[in-house]
Amino acid sequence: xxxxxxxxxxxxxxxxxxxxxxxxxxxxxxxxxxxxxxxxxxxxxxxxxxxxxxxxxxxxxxxxxxxxxxxxxxxxxxxxxxxxxxxxxxxxxxxxxxxxxxxxxxxxxxxxxxxxxxxxxxxxxxxxxxxxxxxxxxxxxxxxxxxxxxxxxxxxxxxxxxxxxxxxxxxxxxxxxxxxxxxxxxxxxxxxxxxxxxxxxxxxxxxxxxxxxxxxxxxxxxxxxxxxxxxxxxxxxxxxxxxxxxxxxxxxxxxxxxxxxxxxxxxxxxxxxxxxxxxxxxxxxxxxxxxxxxxxxxxxxxxxx
Length: 305
Hints:
The protein has 305 residues and is mainly alpha-helical.
């Protein structure tokens, strides 16, 4: 029970700092941060705690099977990160390694140090078997302080541009990662030499690589679909705007013609007023008609402007 409690404390902080460091390093969009939180919580607080405890009490005895299972779970994590961030796998792998390293320095190192100081009979082969005490609170406070400094001074400073920077020699890194993956699978599998084990390893390799490829294809397909829908929406908006401009242009032409007609009528009224200089009644009528035409043409002139 003590070992389980220690694991829960460590893995809770692992989930917190994996989420914090991962959000900064991978530039996870706001809408996808909840999926990142669900992923790290499931991995740390559920999967890691359960599997570590089952190994500790002896339920999981075959180390190679546990190792192969962990590798496949890591591949699943990479696939989820691909959907969340859209980054290349090589960048996800390198970023995950950096984040796990920072989390280990932030959590495992301080906790183990305080635990070893508080428990003189500490040995790595005995794991965390001592009862919880005041030292646990001290370890938690130290983890919080180290995590704050790690986030402010290192992660945000050195990994803030990680998602947008270009990884040099990408093909070389890809080859190294594939070789490392296959070699790790081989290292775990040789612990039990049998045809079933080799078949199990081969199926795992095929499934893992296939999962990464399908995830990458699905991300590209969903991205293409989103771009296509955006283009269709943009084309529709352009079409509506074009129709609106054409309608507005016709209205402007009609208004311009109407204004020209009013100008001609005003010129005719002025001509009539000049011819009837001695007739005050006609002159007054012409002046009133001119004012009426000006009043009518004013809205048309403003619209044309």
